[in-house]
Amino acid sequence: IVRAFTQVINMNMAFYWGTSRWSPMEIMEAYSVARQFNLIPPICEQAEYHLFQRDKVEIHLPEIFSKIGIGTMTWSPLACGLLSGKYDDGVPLHSRASLKGYAWLKDKILNEEGRKQQGKLRELALIASKLDCTLAQLAIAWCLKNDNVHCVLLGASSVEQLYENLNSVQVVPKLNPTILTDIDRILGNKPVRHVSKGETLQR
């Protein structure tokens, strides 16, 4: 893979290459292969990251990012629409979760864990209201606030939705430590890094 992408870049068919949904071990292996054979290493990892999916970006990737200097492009900041608030009262008729082939998403919304998540989103909607933004904008801004996130990939089904999502950048400065603490309290899922014996954490 590393050799193939090096050839693609050398042929001026691309400027850079990156990985998507690779484990930290796989990324390090690609980097090591690139150094060993004088090839071009990946510059970023594309990882899922949103309010309900945090471990990989917040715990598993930062260490290798600091070691080899690659960045993060995160995707699904609204978790396939779960974080938009539109599923608060179930599954709307013309939503993605109602479409053929998306039964898995509908089940995810309607199961017990999904109902708990919707309850948390109602609390987050109150924070969004205080910040004069939508729940979706809060969710995207929260992703952008992470120093380890260099790019957030957006999806939109209309021009209006695209503008709404882009305006999330105006919410980022409003996410002060107090707001972030309130969000973590509501979510109750802040990842904790477990330190192995003989290892020390850098402050």
From TrEMBL:
Subcellular location: Cytoplasm
GO function terms (MF aspect): oxidoreductase activity; potassium channel regulator activity; transmembrane transporter binding
Domain NADP-dependent oxidoreductase: 16-184
Chief location: cytoplasm
Listed transmembrane segments: none
Keyword hit for Cytoplasm: yes
Any single Gene Ontology cellular-component annotation: voltage-gated potassium channel complex
Keywords of the record: Cytoplasm, Ion transport, NADP, Oxidoreductase, Potassium, Potassium transport, Transport
UniProt xrefs under Pfam families: Aldo_ket_red
GO biological process, one term: regulation of potassium ion transmembrane transport
Protein family (similarity comment): Belongs to the shaker potassium channel beta subunit family.
Name of the featured protein: NADP-dependent oxidoreductase domain-containing protein
Native organism taxonomy: Eukaryota, Metazoa, Spiralia, Gnathifera, Rotifera
